[in-house]
Every structure is written in C-alpha cells, then in structure tokens.
C-alpha cells in the first residue's frame, strides 16, 4: 500500500495483505530493541500519509470538511509520523505496513509500534470504505453472502451497527471474510472448520484490526470519538446510521471480497500441493524401507 501513496488504486489497499504470509511463520516473535543510532543515509522508514480518495469536503453534509481535516490531517498524520520515528533503524524498518502490524502485534504481546502501525492501516482502509454518494444496499456476490451468513441485509446492518455502538471506548467495527486459515499463530481459529469461508462482524478495541487474526477485512467504521464528535457530539448511533445509509462504498467492499476469496483459494491450492508432496515423500520413504528390508532378507537367505 505504501510507496505509491497518493496514486495507489483500490486494489492496492488489499494486495499487500498477501505479503506477510511468506515472511512470518507461526513461531515468529520479536523482542523489542531500541532503534540503532541511524546514520543519515541509513534512514529508510518511510511509511507515507495516504490521502482519502476524494476531496475533504466531498462527504458533506454527512461528514464535514472540518472533521476530515482534523481526522486525516492531524490524527492519521500523527500515527504516520510516530510510526516512522519508532521503526527507523529497527528490524521493522523496510517491512510493509502489514508485516509491521503482524510482527508488532507479536501474538498479543504488543511492541511499541503496533498501535501506530495498525492505526495507519485502519485509517487508510476507513477512508477507502467510504465515497461521496455511498450507502444503500450492496449487490451481487457480496449481497448473496451477506444474506446467506446473516439471514438478510437488514440483519447484517443491525449486527454491524450493534458492534459499532457497543464497542466500549475507542475502537473499530468490521465486516470481514473468515477463510480457512492454517498454521497461523495469531488466528482465533487456526484450523479449518465448518465455520470458515463466511462473512463475520467483529469489533476491536483501540488499534486492533482483523489482520492480526488473519481474517480479511472488507469494511470498517472508526468509532473513536475523534471520528464523529465534531459533527455528531456524543450521538455515536446517528454517526453509524449515516455511515451505513450515506457513505459506505459497497463497490470497494465487493472488490475486497473478491481479493479475499481469491487469496483463500490460492492458499487452499498451496495447502493441497504441500499435502500431496508430503504424501509422496512418505510413500517414497516407505518403498525405500521395504526395498532395504527385502535386500536384507535375501542376503540372510544366501548366508
Ligand atoms: Fe480515527
């Protein structure tokens, strides 16, 4: 997602999600070390402040220019700047943002950079979850899965709103795709089951996001007070309703779902390929043992 900041397409909001799978195994765990004193030429931390994909006044009257100027221009910017200061010269420097999140989540034993890294990712994802003239009802495969997994679109909205409303204090509510996930250290459910390959609504405190459970996020709403207080004061429920009715970018959510399903299918193929290879190796080993035993027995008969 980073490196092409302002011009990155919607697809780039999800593609880096593929990156951490290969680099972090289930035993991955980091010990936090203080940043090394960095020589000027070695400074590489450059997580960028990605702007929303629309002008700051284009969500009005549902989300004001003023709140976006604070929310994106100060809060989001602050997370980016803090993160770059924290990771420069450390082992996290140079990783993708997604890898930094998983590594610094550290199986629930957060490293200092986790909150800033996750908040940078969450805010980019949040901006891209909205669009001017959004809201309404999704269509196609997304609607089919929503109706299959929640009973109806209305029941999904009820569950999503409830998650957003009942997240105590600061945090986020999410629609996510929960696929079969194997051998994943952070996962809530690391084994495939009947419960997988489905849409779920989850909420998370502070900066935590579903990437750390290895789910594929599809939609999010920021329910930190800084996201709505200037426009809605303490009326979080009104803010959530307006978000669903007027702001959600369902095209973005549908696109993310296609990417998530494609990633899950790729993983399944990889698992199957690995399983077949292991079976073949086992078979070759047992044939070799049989041949050895046969030759031993022929030798003893000759003796
Ligand atoms: Fe926020």
UniProtKB/TrEMBL annotation:
Manganese/iron superoxide dismutase C-terminal domain segment(s): 138-255
Q: Which InterPro entries match?
A: Mn/Fe_SOD, Mn/Fe_SOD_BS, Mn/Fe_SOD_C, Mn/Fe_SOD_N, Mn/Fe_SOD_N_sf, SOD_C_sf
**Top-level division of the source organism's lineage:** Eukaryota
Provide ranges: composition bias, Basic and acidic residues.
Answer: 266-277
Q: Which reaction does it catalyse?
A: 2 superoxide + 2 H(+) = H2O2 + O2
Q: What is its main location?
A: plastid
Return the EC number: 1.15.1.1
Q: Where in the cell is it found?
A: Plastid, Chloroplast
Going by the UniProt record, its keywords in alphabetical order are: Chloroplast, Iron, Metal-binding, Oxidoreductase, Plastid
Residue ranges with Acidic residues bias: 293-303
Molecular function as annotated in GO: metal ion binding; superoxide dismutase activity
Q: Which GO terms describe its cellular component?
A: chloroplast nucleoid
Which residue range or ranges hold the Manganese/iron superoxide dismutase N-terminal domain? 48-130
Cofactor(s) the protein needs: Fe cation
Q: Tell me, which GO biological process terms does this entry list?
A: response to light stimulus
Q: Where is this region: Disordered?
A: 265-303
Q: What is this protein called?
A: superoxide dismutase
Q: Which organism is it from?
A: Nelumbo nucifera
The gene from which this protein is expressed is: LOC104606404
């Amino acid at each position: 997602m980073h490196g092409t900041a302002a011009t990155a397409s919607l697809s780039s909001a999800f593609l880096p999600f593929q990156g951490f799978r290969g680099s972090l195994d289930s035993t991955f765990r980091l010990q936090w070390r203080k940043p090394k004193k960095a020589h000027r030429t070695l400074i590489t931390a450059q997580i960028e402040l990605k702007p929303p994909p629309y002008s700051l006044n284009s969500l009005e009257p549902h989300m004001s220019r003023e709140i976006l100027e604070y929310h994106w221009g100060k809060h989001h910017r602050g997370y980016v700047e803090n993160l770059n200061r924290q990771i420069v010269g450390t082992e996290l420097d140079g990783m993708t943002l997604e890898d930094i999140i998983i590594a610094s989540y550290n199986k629930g034993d957060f490293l200092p950079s986790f909150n800033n890294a996750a908040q940078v990712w969450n805010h980019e994802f949040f901006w891209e979850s909205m669009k001017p003239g959004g809201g309404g009802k999704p269509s196609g495969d997304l609607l089919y899965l929503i109706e299959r997994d929640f009973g109806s679109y209305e029941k999904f909205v009820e569950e999503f709103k409830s998650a957003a409303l009942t997240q105590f204090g600061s945090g986020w509510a999410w629609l996510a795709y929960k696929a079969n996930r194997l051998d994943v250290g952070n996962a809530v459910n690391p084994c495939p089951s009947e419960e997988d390959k489905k849409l779920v609504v989850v909420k998370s405190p502070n900066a935590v996001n579903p990437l750390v459970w290895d789910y594929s996020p599809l939609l999010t709403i920021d329910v930190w007070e800084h996201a709505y207080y200037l426009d809605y004061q303490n009326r979080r429920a009104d803010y959530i309703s307006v978000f669903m009715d007027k702001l959600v970018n369902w095209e973005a959510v549908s696109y993310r779902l296609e990417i998530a399903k494609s990633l899950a299918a790729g993983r399944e193929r990889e698992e199957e390929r690995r399983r077949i290879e292991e079976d073949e190796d086992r078979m070759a080993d047992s044939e070799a043992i049989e041949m050895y035993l046969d030759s031993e027995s022929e030798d003893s008969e000759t003796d």
